[in-house]
Amino acid sequence: MSTEVTLSVDADGVALITLDGGDGLNLFSRATGRALSAALRSCDEDDAVRVVVLTGAGGDGSAFCAGADLSAGSGAFEDPGATFSASPVDPPAFQVRKLVIAAINGHAIGIGLTIALQCDLRLVAEDAKLAIPQVRRGMIGDAQSHFTLRRLVGTALAAELLLTGRPMRGAEAAVRGVATRSLPAAEVLPEALAVARDVASNVSPAALALSKRLLWSDLGGDEIAAAETRAHRVLMNHPDAAEGPAAWRERRTPRWTLPVSQLPTDV
User: What is the side-by-side strand order in the sheet with 181-183?
Assistant: First the structure.
């Protein structure tokens, strides 16, 4: 049975996407990739969604995602054909115009880690095992990991993980920058949801979307300066520019009115 992907959105605008294989491993198949793509696309397009949390189903000792499903019928051994992509999640999390938090509540192996690397924040269980072991299986890292990992931690550590396939625990991952923070496994999802609700309540969706676009871009210094200026002009010409300071002065939750869907695409 393929790992299913469930999506729920609460009243605060926090979307929870759960990988659920029913076995605590939450193995990734082509069908999982299609379902996760649909869930992320829905979150990107829905203005009611402010923040996305991605996690794995199961209790203590379960995996976030223990890697690719290599069982018969999973599609892993099929001829890749002309439509094959080593990046099966489209859009990747870094293209979603909302904050995407990976709540890595257990082991993240292979594509289980590489899809988490596409997220903006990664909260990881201290004792979780993380690895991109594909070179030990005759393959290479997927899901744009040669871009995301090098961007996050630099070439030296990216080379260590991608070219040796060696595992590390969550605590080491946090120290070395692969993860944002490490926590006891039982605290990972609650903390991720707490961060998500804080952002959903207090952060301008439009400002976050524009800042995230620049953060993940490959623009140089002068290009970034110009793009920041364009973004400021968009934001300063909307009532939200006054609402943010007013909410801060009045010690209340801001009431943002500029939805992500109304942002110009050329900023």
Answer: 4-9, 14-20, 51-56, 99-104, 121-125, 181-183
